[in-house]
Amino acid sequence: MKRLALVLAILAGTVFSFGQDSTTTGYIRYKSIRDISDNEWMRRRPDMPTEVTQQWELYFTPESSDCTFKPEEEEDEFNTGGMRMRMMRWEPKDVYHIDFATQFFQHYTEFMTKPFLITDTLNMDGWKLTGKQGIVLGYPCIEARTTKYDTVNILAWFTPRIRLKTGPQEYVGFPGAVLYVDYDDGRYVITAEAIAMGKTRPEDEDAPEIPDNGEEVTREEYEQIVIEKTAEMRRMYGR
């Protein structure tokens, strides 16, 4: 922990040295790709798409940030059995909100139709810096790594050029905005597609609100609920 604190202190100096032209207000559009090729039903239908793509948008200011699902204008179409089919899109109701003054993170979501409000503080607990660096959309990035469930590897690339602990979905708390995430060796990938520094939310568009009907849980409690309910469903259906 002391080593991580020292590295982060060094990063803070790095931000100052090459981040003079950065601001703390802007917009990032992300694209997420989920590999569903190992889904049992999908394996029986080789003509079906093997990926689910979604867009997410993030608005941030020095005070707060909000990340929400961005509906796409066009729907996915594919051929099956000589017929042209249109895939029904599932639109997540997730809302991710950060209050930078309190370092407080909220995530509203639904699991098996039940609403949850996940609360946490901004931190890098469990993450380690790998020493690797790269460029995403022209922004210098630093790689961090963690492991979940003992076997799932997660990589996150964050840029100290955008000096806020924000990012897509729950990938927040780093000393800079997260621009790229690789979950479980490519099974789920989130990539920043566009960054517009200084851009603010349109005046005719309301900021997303966190619904107040969700059961309040911590991130650890929510993940345990998902594990238990998923195992229960598999037992019920013999999988």
TrEMBL record:
Tell me one Pfam family matched here. Answer: Porph_ging
Name under which the protein is recorded: GLPGLI family protein
| Keywords in alphabetical order | Signal
State the organism of origin.
Phaeocystidibacter marisrubri
Record's signal peptide: 1-19
User: What segment(s) does the record annotate as region Disordered?
Assistant: 200-220
Q: Where is the composition biased (Acidic residues)?
A: 203-215
UniProt key word Signal: yes
